[in-house]
UniProtKB/TrEMBL annotation:
Name of the molecule in the record: HTH-type transcriptional regulator PerR
Domain of life according to the entry: Bacteria
Annotated family: Belongs to the LysR transcriptional regulatory family.
Database matches in PANTHER family: HTH-TYPE TRANSCRIPTIONAL REGULATOR (PTHR30126), HTH-TYPE TRANSCRIPTIONAL REGULATOR CYSL (PTHR30126:SF39)
Organism: Klebsiella spallanzanii
Amino acid sequence: MSHLTHLRTFLEAYRTGSFSRAAEQLGITQPAASQHIQALESLVGKPLFVRQARGVKATDAAEELARAVAPFIDGVEAKIASYRPQVDAGGTVYFVGSSDFVYYRFTPTLAKLMNAGYRVRFHVGDRARIYAMLEDDSVDFAITASVPDEKNYHYCLLHTERMLLVHSPALTDAIGMTPDMITLSQLPLIAFDEHLPLIRTLWQAMFQSAPPLQAALTIPDMRIIRQMVIDGQGWSVLPDYHCADALAQGRLVSPTPVEISPTSYLYLVWHKKRENPRLNRIRETITADFAS
């Protein structure tokens, strides 16, 4: 069998840290991927991977080989793909991020990837889980509001959002058009978690102090928070895209002045060692969707 095939399998295993993931990406069986690696190890005369409980770890020889061959293997694949644009469509792409963002903004992109022939697996998690899955190569891409460590990760801006204080029209008389700290402190606050990340940011912008309050309810689902606020159960702070329709329909009210509305950013993040032409094209599809 061609050494080129062995090297392609090696490079995918190196980037994913898993023979089974490499096999899935390449459309071959896991035993076939293992045979490719064994054949290459026999050729170079050194072990390339150390088997672990979860996946494999590259040896120094593998690191050296990957640096030497990656530009050429990627170049060949990119050139072939330029002649046959759909040659690498298909396979599975793995994501992790917020279910709320997927619900409101990311489903058209997921549909586009599915229509292009990809299988999509989306995991939901908080910041800790997002970076744990990136680090152990469980996912190809993450969507997160935190700026990653540039030493290990590449990232690009995906979406800009504004934070808005929102409540139902039924609370307008109580809150007024210029909310004050005392009034808000006396009304039920519905928040994502005990740390009040969105509330703290907006409170600081409006009152130049930390919020001296606790939530009446915490629940890690923006859609539930939105509905409870619409139902008049309290007030909250939500990203603008979560509540734009309800604001337009008059089901929610936001007294937040535009000039002090804090801005937050969502990033598409991927591990530097996961760079390859196939994932680059998937990334271009995603970013093009949000640029339009």
